[in-house]
Every structure is written in structure tokens, then in C-alpha cells.
Design a protein that fits this description.
Number of domains: 2
Low-confidence stretches: none
InterPro entries: ABTB1, SKP1/BTB/POZ_sf
Keywords: ANK repeat, Repeat
Largest sheet: none
Helix content: 55-70%
Strand content: under 5%
């Protein structure tokens, strides 16, 4: 078995998708998930959505939840939320936004101590402030 490199993984992913090779797509998703960073999480989330890589998408949203206080300062992240809100067909003003829901879930999912509760509260507040700033209700 050959290991994928970051140099080739996107090309292999495109070919795997074109030829309907789900096992190879999952391997590509796993490789991409191991390379998650602040600099590429938005790109990898978009890739996960495009190629229907649910595990990679979940890894990305979990990572976004961990670094949400940094992400809310990034205009690209604000655009990502706006785009995700716009992609919901027939979305009403107060309907949920899938990306935001997933991030909220990951922020709250492992809260077990008082310090973790406070940290989660701060992360939720940062996300809510961004949503207010870009006029997204959800």
C-alpha cells in the first residue's frame, strides 16, 4: 500500500471521485484530516463538503470549534458562514446554518468541568458576536 502525500492527495481525491472509488476517497480524507491546521481548515472543510467526506467535515468543524476565537477574526470564515447560510434552500431568517450548528455542538460536547464551561461560554459568545456582526440569525 502506498502512502499519500499532501502533494498528491488532492489529485488522487479528484480521480477517486471521478471513478467512484469510495475507499480511496476515505483514504484521501484521512490523509487530509491528519494535516489540519489553522491555515487550511476552511479549505479542507470546503473540500470535505464538495467531495462528501463526512468524517473530514466533522474533523474540520471540531477543529474550528477549538480555535473559534481566532477564526471569528478571519473574514474568510465570515464569508464561509454566509455562504453556508445561503446554501440552505428556502432558508428563513431564523433557520439554522449547518456549519454553525456543528461548531456549536463541538463547543458544548465535552464540557465536564467548571473551567471548561467558562471556556465554552466564551467560545459561544465569540461565535454569536460574529453572527451578529454579519447579520445571521440562527
Amino acid at each position: 500500500m502506498t502512502n499519500l502525500t499532501m502533494d498528491s492527495v488532492f489529485d488522487v481525491l479528484c480521480v477517486a471521485d471521478m471513478y467512484l472509488l469510495p475507499g480511496l476517497k476515505r483514504l484521501c480524507g484521512k490523509t487530509l484530516g491528519q494535516a489540519l491546521s489553522r491555515n487550511n481548515v476552511i479549505c479542507l472543510w470546503k473540500t470535505a463538503r464538495l467531495f462528501h467526506l463526512s468524517r473530514l467535515e466533522d474533523q474540520c468543524t471540531e477543529y474550528m470549534a477549538k480555535i473559534i476565537e481566532q477564526l471569528v477574526l478571519d473574514p474568510e470564515f465570515a464569508e464561509l458562514i454566509k455562504d453556508d447560510a445561503a446554501s440552505v434552500k428556502g432558508r428563513h431568517e431564523t433557520d439554522s446554518v449547518p456549519l454553525v450548528d456543528d461548531i456549536r455542538y463541538h463547543i458544548s460536547s465535552n464540557v465536564q468541568t467548571y473551567s471548561a464551561i467558562e471556556e465554552a461560554r466564551q467560545k459561544h459568545a465569540a461565535l454569536e458576536q460574529l453572527l451578529n456582526d454579519i447579520n445571521i440569525e440562527c
